[in-house]
Amino acid sequence: MEELVVSIFFCSVLMACIGLLAYSERCSSCGSLMYHFYNNKKANLAIGEAYHACKRCGAKEVKGTVDCSGYVVWSNGNEGDFSKDGEYYRKRHHGRDGGGSAGDGGGYAGDGGGSAGDGGF
Ligand SMILES: [Zn+2]
């Protein structure tokens, strides 16, 4: 019986944490709590701004900076790459110290790669 109480306690703590996180990052426009978990990532490479766009109302919020090659650094420290038109986003993983896998010369997010293209996945 005690185990049940403990697990219920942890469950509610977890739920509270998630709720708080969602609440603190809710959409400033429509108040959607799902905004934190489900948002579209967009970028405007011309002005160097990266956005989270609300899936419900479409409101955009600047959440990071992007350079002209599509490389984005979010305000929370995450990195990623946008396609040239700012439509497609994918997260960049850390750990590029030694390897050349994400380096300049690689075709990782380059023009020629089909991986970030239309039928991507
Ligand atoms: Zn919204």
Write up this protein.
With 121 residues, the chain is an alpha+beta fold. Helix content is 19%, strand content 26%. The chain binds zinc ion. Zinc ion binds next to loops. The site of zinc ion (ZN) has 9 residues, from loops.
Q: Summarize this, please?
A:
With 121 residues, this protein is an alpha+beta fold.
State mean pLDDT (0 to 100 scale): 82
Query: What is the H/E order?
Result: HEEEEEE
Q: In which range does the helix fraction lie? A: 10-25%
| Spatial order of the strands forming the largest sheet | 1-2-3-4-5-6
Number of helices: 1
Structural class computed from helices and strand pairing:
alpha+beta
Biggest β-sheet: count, sense, barrel? 6 strands, antiparallel
Strand content: 25-35%
Task: Supply database-style keywords.
binds zinc ion, 121 residues, alpha+beta, 1 helix, elongated
List the helices and strands and how they pair.
Layout: H1 2-24, E1 39-44, E2 49-54, E3 60-66, E4 71-74, E5 79-82, E6 89-92
Antiparallel strand pairs: 1-2, 2-3, 3-4, 4-5, 5-6
